[in-house]
Design goal:
Length: about 220
């Protein structure tokens, strides 16, 4: 799954990864975040407002008014089957969540869990595919939130966790967020996420289990 991410790079680095010639500007007082959790508003990149692209904070976590489920991840296999509830968001709600890496908590033999930080070996920003119910003018609440797409069929990082977010290469990310990309093409993009071999991971301190822990050493090897 994907339940905690890191957004430590400058906003312009995320923007230039997906739109190299963009003139977007973004002023954000939050600064780098080393422990971003569901229920908050991470940075996102999308084309829901402007054909030139937008960087904005949207709520992480989606809860339909007719459902009791608060969903932070969207399973790829459900999306490919055009399943509920993602079929309602697919054509008009494709966004990416930029990140520098994410955390997982695999279980140890003694039953405890050890947090690990997973990140790209080359240090480049990641573009995580996501689906949102937000539209221009909508409230920034769970009914209009987003869920990160996850997959377990591309290597899976089994020794860490059997699911991981679908991270798209820059060109695929550009096509994913473009509303003009046909539905079938967009679904195919999700099958072609970045391979497991592009990632590295290591143990990190237990303090990252607390979402208030935002120090830079959160991502350092324990």
């Amino acid at each position: 799954m994907c339940g905690r991410i890191v957004q430590k790079s400058a906003a312009i680095d995320y923007v230039e990864t997906i739109w190299p010639k963009s003139r977007l500007s973004f002023s954000d007082p939050a600064g780098p975040r080393f422990n971003v959790s569901p229920g908050t508003r991470p940075l996102t990149l999308h084309m829901l407002v402007d054909a030139e692209g937008t960087i904005a904070r949207l709520p992480w976590g989606y809860k339909r008014a007719d459902s009791k489920h608060f969903m932070i991840n969207a399973k790829l296999e459900t999306i490919l089957k055009n399943g509920w509830p993602w079929r309602f968001l697919f054509n008009g709600g494709r966004i990416v969540v930029p990140a520098d890496g994410w955390y997982e908590w695999p279980a140890l033999p003694d039953g405890t869990k050890q947090p690990h930080y997973i990140h790209p070996r080359d240090g480049a920003p990641l573009m995580l595919a996501a689906l949102t119910a937000w539209r221009p003018g909508a409230e920034l609440d769970a009914e209009h939130g987003f869920a990160v797409v996850t997959n377990d069929t591309r290597g899976g990082m089994i020794d860490i966790h059997d699911r991981r977010p679908v991270a798209l290469p820059p060109e695929a990310a550009r096509r994913w967020v473009n509303p003009s990309t046909p539905t079938d093409d967009a679904r195919q993009l999700l099958r072609d996420g970045i391979e497991e071999s592009a990632f590295a991971w290591h143990r990190v301190r237990q303090e990252v289990g607390n979402t208030k822990y935002q120090l830079p050493d959160a991502i350092q090897p324990a």
